Amino acid sequence: MRPAPPRERPRAEPAAPRSERDAATRGSSSADLHAFRERTLRRGVNPCVYWPLRAVLLPAFLIFFRMQRIGREHLPRRGALLLASNHRSFLDPFVIGMMTRRPVYFMAKRELFQKRWQAWLLNSLGAFPVDRGAGDTAAIDTTRAILERGDCVVVFPEGTRVRPGPLGAPHRGIGRLALDSGVPVVPIAVIGTEDARRGWRIRPRKVRLRAGRPLRFPLPERASPGLAAAVTERIWACVSLQWEWLGGVVPQREAPAPRGPAQARHGRASENSSAREEAHAA
User: For 52-71, what is each residue's pLDDT tens digit?
Assistant: First the structure.
């Protein structure tokens, strides 16, 4: 009796290339991100979540963080508004929200929307997702739509958290938003939140915020990249001014180069000439 021939193992289908698998995963998550953005535009913040949580967080921040809010008189109570701030901690959107007496909306990185319960909570509090590594135009369009309906949006021109040390370099998206929407932009600086978190522990640290006067820019016929960059620099200079007022670290400025003997003689000759001219005029 002949032994049965060995059974052939079914060949495994070749795995899809990594790029295709990533694209499929990205496509499904992109649909979820779109749904969260649509919910932000249709419903806004969830009042049953936002206001009770704010009522709890405000006294907690005032006591636990000894939060100091400076310049709140510069924040309009109604109408479309852009808040431009530096970014040091995940707490920044929440402490900035305590500066105003109305809900604020803000972008949050897409990774924070992977867990359903966390995504629902953040979305209920005014957060909508942004894909930071892909030039997410959908998130920018969502920001414009929120401004068009007269709400308040927090934007972090640095694009990501920067800690410690001086402020980071801004991206020109804030300048383009200001030019496209024509809404006032309030520069805000936050200091102290970078030391408040260690892992999942929140430590008592003094947190201070300072808001400057609103900046207004005319609506151009065409917002060129150069004009958007110039407006961004103007906004960021005002944020840096609030940052320095709070005692934040500023970048070291280069000392003037030492003058050589010839330059020194030329400088003394100029000073003597100016002195003789002043004496003659007298």
Answer: 999 999 999 999 999 999 99
